[in-house]
Design goal:
A 5-stranded antiparallel β-sheet has the order 4-1-3-2-5. It is built from 3 helices and 5 strands. 28% of the residues lie in helices and 35% in strands. The protein is an alpha+beta fold. It has one domain: Alpha-Beta Plaits, CATH 3.30.70. It is globular. A hairpin with a 5-residue loop joins strand 2 and strand 3.
């Protein structure tokens, strides 16, 4: 059974994404911002057969789009995200661009 997951991936860069990088994320309903520590954070929504697969996919998508190494990843089901009041695990992202 496929489930929808929300993922937040922090990558080791402080550079904003350009149009091509944002375009590479477009199918994942991305939100891109800055984490509390100043790193670029990419939030995406994706479907997967398991949490482990969703995490691996989120890491691959974020690193491919940004060209930067992932330094943190948080993934949860869409339902869990909604139960937490939206995907705001610590209110840490300041929006830079909305794709």
């Amino acid at each position: 059974m496929r489930v929808t997951y929300n993922a937040a991936v922090e990558v080791a860069t402080r550079q904003p994404l350009d149009v091509d990088q944002l375009s590479a994320l477009s199918e994942y309903q991305p939100q891109v911002g800055t984490s509390q520590r100043g790193w670029l954070e990419v939030r995406i929504s994706l479907t997967s057969s398991s949490l482990a697969n969703a995490c691996a996919t989120a890491l691959a998508v974020a690193t491919a789009a940004t060209g930067a190494e992932a330094i943190a990843c948080e993934v949860m089901t869409e339902r869990e995200s909604a139960d937490r009041g939206g995907f705001v695990p610590g209110q840490r992202t300041v929006p830079l661009a909305w794709a």
